[in-house]
Amino acid sequence: MTAHINPADDVKDSGDGDSLRKSSLTSGKVVESGSNDVITDETPYVVDKASERALTRKFDLRLLPVLAVMYLFNALDKGNLGNAQTAGLDEDLGFEEGQYNLIVAIFFIPFVLFAPPVSMLGKKYGPARVLPILMFSFGTCTLLVAATHTFGGVFALRWFLGIAESAFFPLVIYYLTTFYRRGELARRLAIFYAASNIANAFSGLLAFGVFQIQSDRVDFVWRWLFIIEGCCTIIFAIFAFWYLPHSAAEARFLNDDEKALAYHRIQVDSSSVVNEKFNLKESLKIFRRPTTYAFLGIEICLGVPLQGVSLFLPQIVHGLGYEYVKTNLYTVAPNITGAVMLLILGFTSDFMRIRFPFICLGFAFTFIGFIIYAAITDVQAQLRVAYFATFMMCWGTSAPSVLLSTWYNNNIAHEGERITLTSVGVPLANLMGLVASNVFRLEDAPKYAPALIVTAVFGATGCTIAGCLGLYMMWDNKRRNRVQGVNLTAKDVPTMKLRDGPKVPEFRWFL
């Protein structure tokens, strides 16, 4: 079922303030595109402010909490290896030198290889069904780690975990773009992604609590961590499969007027064709745009600090001289402040309708945090400064990830191109975990000075590329306005006219 809006038809008021108004829609004409009605000439302005606010509140309350919890478990199941390592996982299972780094690294190979095909399956069968299936799969992998006794067992499960988690974040981004306007997306993704920071904080707190367990039911205490997290993930995946709506048109919590409004909002300010059928040949055209490779370059630069903090923050904090139980507790505060900074930058970015300056700011935090820590000769002698540097590391990793994904999704009106770029870009950033897992070497412990410097350089490079791309977009928008004798921004142009990208004269970049 797809909700349709025909500007020629009167829409009766249901009395609840959510009805569409004929006068708001008469500026557009409708043409057929498959089974969908396409509004071609409307600008993406508000139909009814009160109705839109009520609708987005429903989406916020019904969708974001569930997706955030799903992503929290996603981050927990991916990052709990670092917590287990602080409790002696490598020694308990008899790992040889370098094998722990191999286990960390192997996750990213299937994570990258399987992301595009799994994302395309998600587009075909619907993220509302594929996401819970993926969640059930990675929860099962996590639970099974508790039963392993060899390096080979953990290695194999990390491979399958990489497959199960590969398309999770790209599909969530795509799913949210089918409910929210472009200017509403960053703060919602920020709320969603903050679950990752909270997961890292909660992971440390949970590990701190779990490692207090005194029980003879398992041989090593870290096994409880995988048992608890794996079971909770599986249970919530079953709930999400039943709960998530396929689309706004099939959401049980919306009435007919709200469904029509939801369809209209996305038609004029997100997707040129709502619920567009996936076409691989059409979708691959995104790689003909030069800006695509700039976005991917930023993803690469983002990936090293992002994965470095996610995977090795417990080891960095451990270098401050704390024993393993207290180390996990001291990772909580940096991750919580990282979530707060992410929300501040995400909400501010949506309010100002601009992305790249906040991406640059996030990279700057990363660069400064890693440089400060690397520059300290004796971290235990300057404990407070070194610990503060870990806060800045967390401030500067999450926000650029969210805002970068939002930035290129804002500039792509074609649904197939959007899911294709996201399914390549997000795993590419995660692939940089291979770099992080190999520069954080045990022989450089406890300070990991070479790794800190490498990570800082990636942050500085990402800041430079994002700044240059943003300035180019500003210049190109001004050039197009000058040539056409108008003064337009991205919000003034309906998404149907953005479908073919920069080659269309009316196209304007969402900065």
From TrEMBL:
GO MF, one example: transmembrane transporter activity
Sequence ranges assigned to domain Major facilitator superfamily (MFS) profile in this UniProt record: 63-511
Residue stretches of biased makeup (Basic and acidic residues): 7-21
Bilayer topology term: Multi-pass membrane protein
This protein's name: Major facilitator superfamily (MFS) profile domain-containing protein
Listed transmembrane segments: 59-76, 100-118, 130-151, 157-177, 189-211, 223-244, 293-317, 329-349, 356-376, 388-407, 419-440, 452-475
Entry keyword set: Membrane, Transmembrane, Transmembrane helix, Transport
Region annotation Disordered: where it falls in the sequence: 1-28
InterPro entries (alphabetical): MFS (IPR011701), MFS_dom (IPR020846), MFS_trans_sf (IPR036259)
Location of this chain's protein in the cell: Membrane
Record organism: Monosporascus ibericus
GO cellular component: membrane
Keyword Transmembrane helix: yes
